[in-house]
Amino acid sequence: MHTTNQSIIVSGGSRGLGLHLTERLLEAGNKVATFARSHTEAMDRLAGTYGDAFYFTPLDAVDAPGVAAFVAEVADRFGAVDSVVNNAAIGQDQLLMHTDLDTLRGIVDVNVIGPTLLTRAAIKHMILQGGGNICNISSICGSRGYAGLSIYAGSKGYLDAMMRALAREVGEAGIFVNSVAPGFFESEMSSVLLPEQLNTIKRRTPSGSLSNDENIFKVVDLVISGTTNMQGQVVFVDGGITT
Ligand SMILES: NC(=O)c1ccc[n+]([C@@H]2O[C@H](COP(=O)([O-])OP(=O)(O)OC[C@H]3O[C@@H](n4cnc5c(N)ncnc54)[C@H](OP(=O)(O)O)[C@@H]3O)[C@@H](O)[C@H]2O)c1
Residue ranges of the Ketoreductase domain (predicted)? Predict the structure, then answer.
């Protein structure tokens, strides 16, 4: 483990990758705060196991005052905001010509506005503290094309581009901003893929296997450790499918 004794915000920690990151970072001795729209049984389990080192509240990532209040609450409870993992997002499985305006706006709201609001609120604390780490969970879709994912891909491309500009903006304040871009991994979001599609992806992957939550955790753990001097980078965790 590289990251310990930090105060960390992971958005969308109620299930999927966000839950795994939350749990592993807690195990490593960090304080972790997370939010999602729904309260899952896992949130009660983590509260029971980790007590005051864990904080969950139901919150929509696009609720600007709610997100600002959440970050202030975390700073108050934990005494700092050392790292933020922008994980919450929604997927897409639709050709652009069939996508209505509400769906388009929904993806942009959650995947673009959401992480921007959280980052904006957190860097104010990080600047006062003298440093911190922002890690965006992007996707290989932000750099490579996949049919049916155009808006989602655009939202991840935004995250990567915004991350690079922000790295220049806040780097001097000791804040490291990077993206971790996984390939497809098993979760509710990727459950729209048929078994034959998953097999095709595996066949085209040099390592022969899809990434899993733990592979991604290992990279996120390193990226937010503050020990690497890595700044403004997209790190792919995809078994080499984008090479
Ligand atoms: N799965 C893949 O193959 C894959 C590949 C590459 C990258 N990624 C990226 O990895 C990250 C995690 O994906 P996943 O597969 O673990 O997704 P997931 O299983 O669908 O989980 C998404 C999490 O985000 C939360 N969330 C969604 N909309 C939200 C909103 N408006 N406000 C607050 N929380 C919200 C969800 O909780 P609620 O719904 O209760 O709000 C849930 O906790 C995402 O950034 C995704 O784009 C996934």
Answer: 6-183
CA of 50 to the centre of ligand 1 (A): 23
Quick one: average pLDDT of 17-32? Answer: 98
Cα distances (Å, whole numbers) of residue 101 to 60, 93, 104, 151: 20, 15, 5, 11
Contact status, residue 137 vs residue 180, Cβ threshold 8 Å:
yes
Pocket mutation for ligand 1, best pick of 10, 15, 134, 144 (most atoms within 8 Å of C-beta): 15
Cα dihedral 67/71/73/78 (nearest 10): 150
CA 141 to centroid of ligand 1, rounded, Å? 15
Residue 5 Cα to ligand 1 middle (Å): 25
115 touches ligand 1 (CB under 6 Å):
no
Residues contacting 166, CB < 8 A, separation 6+: 119, 123, 134, 177
> Closest ligand 1 atom to the C-alpha of 91?
47
CATH number of this structure's domain 7-237, picked from the four choices 3.40.50.720, 3.30.470.30, 3.40.50.300, 3.40.50.150: 3.40.50.720
Local confidence band at 166 (pLDDT 50, 70, 90 cut-offs): very high
Report pLDDT digits (tens) over 125-151. 999 999 999 999 999 999 999 999 999
SS3 240: coil
- Which pLDDT tens digit goes with each residue over 84-105? 999 999 999 999 999 999 999 9
CB burial of residue 144 (10 Å; 0-12, 13-18, 19+): middle
